Amino acid sequence: MGPRHQTHSVKVGPVTIGGDAPVVVQSMTDTDTADVEKTVAQIRLLADAGSEMVRVTVNTEEAAAAVPEIYRQLRADGYHVPIVGDFHYNGHLLLTKYDETARLLDKYRINPGNVGFGNKKDDRFNAMIDVAIKYDKPVRIGVNWGSLDKELSTRLMDENARSDNPKPSQEILHEALVLSAITSADAAVKRGLGENRIVISCKVSRVQDLISVYQMLADRCQYALHLGLTEAGMGSKGIVASSIAMGILLQQGIGNTIRTSLTPEPNGSRDREVIVSQQILQALEVRSFAPEVTACPGCGRTTSTFFRVLTDEVDVFLRTKMVTWRHQLVGVEDMKVAVMGCVVNGPGESKHANIGISLPGTGEAPSAPVFVDGKKVKTLKGENIAEEYKQMIEDYVHKTYPPRSELIASS
């Protein structure tokens, strides 16, 4: 892991982005924000999955008017996850007209390419920054190559065309993205918004472009940086592309907050993007969010599908439990669990985990030894192996990890 890119520290409600703070996972709803019931339900889903910040679209008067009720219901349910308002085109109108919404939102996202053109651009941008200053709100200056400032990009392209040694158009696009973000952030600072109230992002949809752009950003500024491919795609394509792009940058110490912008699969859950972001950070050993499950890929020795079913059951069980465990217990997110399929690597991997089970492979005796902290403690047999193993995991958790209340009392 490379040295951390030094940035300003930005407070967003109870969450800190940048500085020495851990990398923050965020997500975004895809509901109509004016539909309070659906939006609240999805924010709860994302927060339960571990999203530490949730962005909502504020694109209409109905959406802006709904924000206070969304906050009221979330707070009544005990949810305090910061909510970010995503503004395009008419943000200057909505933020100035809906005063309570502007006051309640924990952060505003502004896209410099969508605030207007000519003199209107500066006026509208300044209007939103003035509201942020009034309520001491942080702002993300979010540039996107699908809505890049046309005046800026055209000027840079024209200058490059007149150059004696013109650069490839892709390099000019990178420069336009970076310049748009930094000049907009600098303009906000000149207007009176503190450097410690600004996060910037330059969203692109190709891996190599994202890496190049964020390396440029890290070289040129100390604003906190939000990472993520835009329109990453669906399924394995989106997961692989996001993991490679953000993984390389995070390994270089670049990035303070991330989102994995997956296209949800049909009937898929929105919280998938949260889980992938967590897994990226956990695989890099940047942060821990949930117990890791080690499981073999299967081979000719494991013709039974039971170990695959058990692996899935255990993974779902742990993530479901983590909704409450993360608030109640200290250190449980670092637990290692193993579900192995045969005698070749099963016992060894199980011994390396905090708690592991080695299921019988094809032709092996129908018994499954369970190892706790390297020692065999029990052998499970019969039809209830899954339920018995999950109960053993739960017993281990409550025996091993202290309640947060005890930690608070002792301090």
TrEMBL record:
One of its GO terms (molecular function) is 4-hydroxy-3-methylbut-2-en-1-yl diphosphate synthase activity (ferredoxin). Pathway: Isoprenoid biosynthesis; isopentenyl diphosphate biosynthesis via DXP pathway; isopentenyl diphosphate from 1-deoxy-D-xylulose 5-phosphate: step 5/6. InterPro entries: Dihydropteroate_synth-like_sf, IspG_bac, IspG_bac-typ, IspG_C, IspG_TIM, NO2/SO3_Rdtase_4Fe4S_sf. Residues 292-394 form the IspG C-terminal domain. Its cofactor is [4Fe-4S] cluster. [4Fe-4S] cluster binds at C296, C299, C342, E349. Its EC number is 1.17.7.3. It catalyses: (2E)-4-hydroxy-3-methylbut-2-enyl diphosphate + oxidized [flavodoxin] + H2O + 2 H(+) = 2-C-methyl-D-erythritol 2,4-cyclic diphosphate + reduced [flavodoxin]. Belongs to the IspG family. Converts 2C-methyl-D-erythritol 2,4-cyclodiphosphate (ME-2,4cPP) into 1-hydroxy-2-methyl-2-(E)-butenyl 4-diphosphate. This is 4-hydroxy-3-methylbut-2-en-1-yl diphosphate synthase (flavodoxin). It comes from Endozoicomonas euniceicola.
